[in-house]
User: Fold these one by one.
Assistant:
Number 1:
Amino acid sequence: MSLGQGLTNFLTSDLYGLTAEEYSLGRSNIEIVEAMITAGIKVIQYREKEKKALYMYQECLKIRELTQAAGVTLIVNDHIDLALAVQADGVHIGQEDLPPQIVRQLIGTSMILGLSTHSPAQAEAAVQCGVVDYIGVGPIFATQTKKDVCEPVGLDYLDYVVKNIQLPFVAIGGIKMNNIAEVHRRGAKISALVTEIVSAQNIPEQVAAIRQSIYRSSC
Amino acid sequence: MSLGQGLTNFLTSDLYGLTAEEYSLGRSNIEIVEAMITAGIKVIQYREKEKKALYMYQECLKIRELTQAAGVTLIVNDHIDLALAVQADGVHIGQEDLPPQIVRQLIGTSMILGLSTHSPAQAEAAVQCGVVDYIGVGPIFATQTKKDVCEPVGLDYLDYVVKNIQLPFVAIGGIKMNNIAEVHRRGAKISALVTEIVSAQNIPEQVAAIRQSIYRSSC
């Protein structure tokens, strides 16, 4: 997939899926990705903090095959070397990862670079550095999924980004069926949901219901 | 430093230093590397498991400057992206990291690739894969430094490597002042010591004493 195709998925999607094996009811990351693809999710991030690199590689290689065949954008969290090894469409980094300019040097110009931001200053810096393709905006609400996450920044930061930042962004953090309408009503085009998707028994049904919730927001 | 220069340091040295901040008596990895350089150690591995990538990068960048200026070979443990980002001389991986062939693709041909091995089968595989520049052989003795290490393989595995494996190797694991003579008498040319160096109050004096111990082995 070219950079353009990978980004187009991002720019035209409503949902951004992430793996989170410990919340996946005993299913593997691979099974979850298969279900997300079936559900029509077009952007999937492989996020895995615990496993040894070899097992992440083996798993992510399979996920790369599945996403490639389905025309789904695959973003790898944190591990630049893993992203390069499996030829992912992009990488997603946080504020305490390698600096974006350095990551851009490592990945070249044909991979998407996403950066988590938690404040107006971080969003402005992401714009200024000139190498970031999209930002994460959050955590909008309280979340238990990430262990090293900061306090929720609330809807105010989302409003700031919608009004002031030109970069594409994904809203993330504590977004659920019952609050996603508000997030999209305020201007988010795409939202990342973790447990609300991976913890569902039937992921395609759950995703359809989440999409209904977004749709209701625009009525 | 070219691949050749970096490897020459490896092939002509007796000691291989590693960082281990939690055993460094409150000194930073940077201070420890400075002391190792003063002590005349020519191969240093940056090993850091706990810190966020950004802080590893900032620290390792400084260590890269120090080692470069001193003509010391810098090897980065595990983190291929970090090694590339700081332009280290090489990377060192374990059996549960990205496969050596994949790592070689990521680092190109101008960086050293080291691989930990713990058995004759792993040493043979390292030779067969054709992309590894040196192997780690150990743990020779019991060690508490690494949390995810296997049981000591003892001197038998060292003897096997000396007799059967053509690749350069570094002996590692529980090597101390009082047993390094035996390791070198059996054919090791270079040994990696962690706590025995980083936990010394005066690292140059300690390294001189360790070298005396090796020297006594050849009498």
Number 2:
Amino acid sequence: MNNKVLIVGAGAIGAFYGALLAKVGADVAVVCRSDYELVKEHGFQINSHDLGSWQFTPSQVLKKASEYQGKADYVILCTKMIEGLDRISLIADAVNERSSIVFIQNGVDTEQELIDAFPHNEVVSGLAFICSNRLQPGVISHLAYGKLSLGNLPGGVSEKTRHLINLFQRSGIECIGMEDIITGRWIKCIWNAPFNPLSVLSGGLATEAILKNQEELVRSIMQEVFEIASATGHPLPEDIIETNIANTYTMPPYKTSMLLDFESNKAMETEVILGNTVRTAERHKVACPHLKTLYALMKLREMQIELVNSNGE
Amino acid sequence: MNNKVLIVGAGAIGAFYGALLAKVGADVAVVCRSDYELVKEHGFQINSHDLGSWQFTPSQVLKKASEYQGKADYVILCTKMIEGLDRISLIADAVNERSSIVFIQNGVDTEQELIDAFPHNEVVSGLAFICSNRLQPGVISHLAYGKLSLGNLPGGVSEKTRHLINLFQRSGIECIGMEDIITGRWIKCIWNAPFNPLSVLSGGLATEAILKNQEELVRSIMQEVFEIASATGHPLPEDIIETNIANTYTMPPYKTSMLLDFESNKAMETEVILGNTVRTAERHKVACPHLKTLYALMKLREMQIELVNSNGE
């Protein structure tokens, strides 16, 4: 059947994708720590600009994976990738021999720990191109986009992953299988690596203002990501920088996820977006002075935020 | 006699150095726009941690240089180096055939416009290593340091400049003549170029925190300045980076001038410290990706400040 799903990390991303799967008949349970009481009682309210509004009542609402009843076909990890997150222990107790482990999370070079921890399970990498917010506990607002790319690791798209893709497609969003999802991650990174930190370090500029004023810097950063991806054996399309620049000009002014986190005083995904990129470059001896500067600056910025927070200001 | 001095820009730096010259008998007039009325009536109160407190009553208090009575031996320009500043028109009306034009201002590659505008006058470049503030109109607080380096352009130290150096020395501060003051400017730049922007872009960290956490980035930036200075024919001492790093570790945590401006919502000296450095690098075909990243980020940061200010937030 392959219709038992456990979403671990039912925030703006996880609850939305879980709600889509439930809509097309999957049995969707959630691990949901912060809004546990409210969600257990009332489920989620999903308000989507494109897909309408509906109630999502998970089959099980859990505080942790070990409470899961049954055998999950797909354990879908959707937490934010912040420092100190232990992905293995978040999901291990709900993983059985037949579970596919799907992670819909940001960043590059994040797959190996899952592959190593679950050598007998399919591990599926997911990329979400989505704009959704958790407006209040239990209420998810899906503002725009929603596309999902899925692919098995180290490559290919299994039959079981195809089944999951079909479920998502039937739910009304675009979902594609990628034979080389690691390349897909670098494709996402080439946009995230400039715009996420620049939006924060500029003090809050949207994508349009950044690009209009410092296109050369954006291109230099993208060029470094391009070279790093090539060095890892995942070359990106030759025209990807031009395409990204052109597409970003046509987007409405957009606040990056890092900027939204910054503005809400939440932890940012600096390490998986910039840190892992820089470390990959170093392993492959690719120079990346622009990325290194951004990464160091983000670490300083985070340090200053911590100082202010710890002073109670 | 060479004792008639006009200070143009009598702020925390200009009023302090003017007050020192007046203390040793020079006839010191000031152009002082923002605090004009108060200074005309009461002069300046100087409170120096090292040199005590005294009253400085300028011989003339002027709104603009054209009001100056007499023939200035030294026209000393001390304004902040912000965008749109027209240095020539600020001083031209008070410059006579015998005036030395002295500028005690930040930045590199700032001399040519003065040399071109006043081809028959001595042009003297000055570097102040000082920590002083204008606490309120007419009151200058000199907190620490104070050393001044002076040198003629394009090089050497003229007799008339020696005379000025002597006046400053007699007033109680350290003042030295530099045969190659342009090299002196690069020596100051190698410290300013990393610490000024990093303090702002980090959101307000002092020098110590920056250095402790991102020493490698600081060194990379200093290395670029080192190479740019060499390319212009003004090589810096081989050990300058080590010396700067070691000295900064021994300094008390220090807020840079750019950070102080940033925190007071004042214009920052981004163009003369970073912009001119990057443009000099480009002219001499020296790669400087770290400096370029910082410069672009500072331009974005300034743009965002402008947006916020213009929204009245």
Number 3:
Amino acid sequence: MSEPTKIFLNESEIPRQWYNIAADMPHAMKPPLHPGTQQPVGPDDLSAIFPMNLVEQEVCTDRWVDIPEPVLEKLLLWRPSPLYRAKNLEKALGTPAKIYYNNEGVSPAGSHKPNTAVPQAYYNKIFGTKRLATETGAGQWGSALSFACQLFGLELKVYMVRISFDQKPFRKMMMQTWGADCVASPSLETAAGRAILAEHPDTPGSLGIAISEAIEDAVTTPNTKYALGSVLNHVMLHQTIIGLEAQKQMAMVNDYPDVVIGCAGGGSNFAGLSFPFICDKIHGKNVHVIAAEPAACPTLTRAPFLYDFGDTAKMTPLLPMHSLGHDFVPPPLHAGGLRYHGMSPLVSQLVVDGLIEPRSYHQLNCYENALLWARTEGFIPAPETSHAIAAAVEEAKRAKEEGKEKTILLNWSGHGLMDLKGYAAYLAGELSDYEYPQEDIDRALAALAQYPKP
Amino acid sequence: MSEPTKIFLNESEIPRQWYNIAADMPHAMKPPLHPGTQQPVGPDDLSAIFPMNLVEQEVCTDRWVDIPEPVLEKLLLWRPSPLYRAKNLEKALGTPAKIYYNNEGVSPAGSHKPNTAVPQAYYNKIFGTKRLATETGAGQWGSALSFACQLFGLELKVYMVRISFDQKPFRKMMMQTWGADCVASPSLETAAGRAILAEHPDTPGSLGIAISEAIEDAVTTPNTKYALGSVLNHVMLHQTIIGLEAQKQMAMVNDYPDVVIGCAGGGSNFAGLSFPFICDKIHGKNVHVIAAEPAACPTLTRAPFLYDFGDTAKMTPLLPMHSLGHDFVPPPLHAGGLRYHGMSPLVSQLVVDGLIEPRSYHQLNCYENALLWARTEGFIPAPETSHAIAAAVEEAKRAKEEGKEKTILLNWSGHGLMDLKGYAAYLAGELSDYEYPQEDIDRALAALAQYPKP
């Protein structure tokens, strides 16, 4: 018991500011463009769907942003989250590497998503918003925002991607328990939903469609704003509390990671852990940062960096990002949270700048490593998280081959207790790998040729 | 943020001994009796189903029992568990009371059950057992033992009460993820199961039946022992790590509880938190200890204290306990873990001795309070835990009425993420209360008249 298994940060040491990487990037992020004029959007354009205080954060370039006291108070319900050392996994791998992970599964919703749900609900509350509309894929974000809206007394409507809505009924119950209203998307409640259902009555839905519905709801319902759980700058900002805590915790055990790993769907848990370390890297520190994504949805590893819409109905601004195309139809894949066509513009820009190495992992490899994790460390990871685990195990095995000590830090973004059907399917041999077709990427590229290049 | 929301005990301060209340009880527990001879059973009788090292713990009267180093190492995967202050709930109630709770939901299996599953697997491993058989009700125990057996490389067969097996398919998937084999009970795999199915093909099953099956499996399969997740003395012993940690954590904030509360099914989470405090009470400390049970299964509040079997097939020794009768058929109730006919003999004796106040709570009241908890503190409690919450809220409201400061400590025995159907049913108005019929208690009493009285 000489080296601790868990490193707890005292509540009094919780970070009181978020870190904004916009202040340190070698190349500033390109501006979002108006979907109609294709000119840079200003705060006023965004204020139709977001409260102005969040719009200000979205365009803010200050390095540090204060966390409001009422937000801190709610974050303390579960934060600082513990940093764990995966000693049993290390032993099972026989690796000289040390594997640390921050356990975001300890939040009430079971993932990192409440880190931004709570401040988003708070900023809306003080702005005067009465009701929020949002979308959710696998349900992590919808659950987290339900929890946060309940804490601040806001109403919430969640548009949940149909296939997940059907496959994961417990997620809906969770949102109801926290007082939210959840419907399957596409729904009959919006023009966007009705249009898609008319054309594709059996569609499994997609995040892009659900975003279109939630935005339409927000702009057509009084006192309602829209909230997004990933991709945008203010979301990445809120998540940096993860990495800031991890830096303090690593210092408590006199260590610093050689490798920092997160899984990447829209980019928020990845950014949350990695941005404070990328700040160190920009300032000369030697740290390798890996974004792990599914081979079935290879946004960073195979999709181009260009301007694309965030949603299917082309209602959002054009964002400068790696994208598989806004009409992307997600392949069958149990990591629902990683099935988005686009990627955070900040993360995309940092990949372009060579500060992040993206890697893709196949589903079966991820489940194999998730099972190894569950059977050594005990905690059952979310399917999304298993991509980060696959990368960490790959690095740990490499360290063994090379006979090198190495410190690996991964973001354990959430538990898989609501996703056990995926494990059962894997154990029953029902899952397979899927390589995203090149012609689909080419088609998306062609369709986006009419828009400006970043 | 002056008073902390969470109190973390450093890993180096984890208790290294369990507390054995047998050393301090005003009246020693009456001995279990052999089902055939009705004479006190000795260690040899128990060694048919348990390894001798656990049998020795079962009859041990030493006040302190060392926790083996390999057990501590595995407990450190999640322990010490954090002590939380339920500030948001206090605020919502407007009470002057302080409400603390130890969060046992942070374990990989999501409840307090791994606290005894891990040592039971360990002791079996070093004894030479290759395989364990056990039963589970709602699935908390079966999951926890699957996790623990995986850590120590033991095979496991779980007999899961049919109604829960059907209602909670995720539990089976969880056990499979940790490598265990889980079947619905009654099953066709044991003589006990076949006999019950022949007579009642549509039976929902019961813990008593599942115990009979698991014991039969253990005594008829080579290298196999039986494991029980509650009721027995060694289980209560292992769980005391909860209360021992809580005592250290309360001392860290210079506080001590006026009231200690746990929900009680077989008694283990209740005993785990309360026994170290009952030790203080026996030695003069003023602390009120409340066991909260369902009105639908009122073992401590309405059932007699007598000798009864632990299982339906009358294979176990006769135990001195409060019991609703071994042929008890559980009423519909979402708190599956509290549906056992009997109660820990240690807890029963302490109730007889007036050291514990039992109280019963109706289902709708429990869900109402569980929902209040989820909407203030965020974490969604297990239906079992909601009974402890109902008692804590009752005490906090009384403190408000009386205008008294009061420190309440409750055992938050597990999360309800696998039990969301109960919340959905409650929110849909589909649940009702159930008063256990007096004639059923009278009938059980009459059937047990032939056995000795404790």
